[in-house]
Amino acid sequence: MTLDLAVSVLTADRAVRFAAPAVVAGEDPFRLDVPPLVGPGTSDIDAAALDALAGLYLTAELEQTGLLVAVELLVANRASLDLTSVEAAELLEQIASAAREWLPAVARQQLFARVFGTASGASSELVNRDFPQLLSDLCSAITAYDEAESWNRPPPSHLRSQITRTVERLRENLALRQYGATLVAGRRITEQVRRSVEVISHPGIVALVRGRSPWDVVRATWEPNEQPDIEGLVGQGQSGQVVIAWTGTPDGVPPQQVRDAAATWLLHAGLEQTWAA
Questions:
Q1: What's the number of domains the chain is made of?
Q2: Is residue 142 domain-resident?
Q3: Domain range holding 66?
Q4: Which tens digits make up the pLDDT trace of 20-59?
């Protein structure tokens, strides 16, 4: 799952570079490569901004896994860790220098609540409470269209119209949240995610928690009865990233990659397809 996640953050990092200047350079370990999106839309938000916000959506879901907090804890307690790898210790020292530019957890959660309505920042008065339902409606509309087409018959015209309308509503919703510090903060958070994946993927860090995979490092920071559904959150973030990015150029019917992503998002969100064919 870490390699798949590496693809996703590569896309997020690339999107932020196009949408905002002066991103930190470096090889990105994420590998979820969505093709570049170009073309005008009817809402007051362009494809580059939607691509960047799609990547930011992935980081909002990763925040809920505890990935960023886990690495922050490792960095803060690096002097007392029982590390057997000199290379891992040096990596944590390097990360500690970079961490001075990272956004604190409270600021990240407030940003994610304002843009995507995530529960962790629900106390904010600026929570975007409409976004989760809009994304759910869009994924449901795409899935209904795909299911109708799978019966080898033309999908009803109202299903295509539903996709068009839900795309427009989602674009309008995000258009209001692309300004201010959103994309600048997204750039900084994306860099933090990249470096965090580098840390938890290091064999010396995995060995520290006697784990078998990088995600065992993250799990080690949670109480046994508070473990999040990491696979579900990552899957929801990756699939949502694909769907949101597609809304930058939604001409025609959704391609198969977007249809698969919509179905995956509904699955991980615990929702059933709600648009009848």
A1: 1
A2: no
A3: 2-128+182-255
A4: 433 333 334 444 343 333 334 445 899 999 999 999 999 9
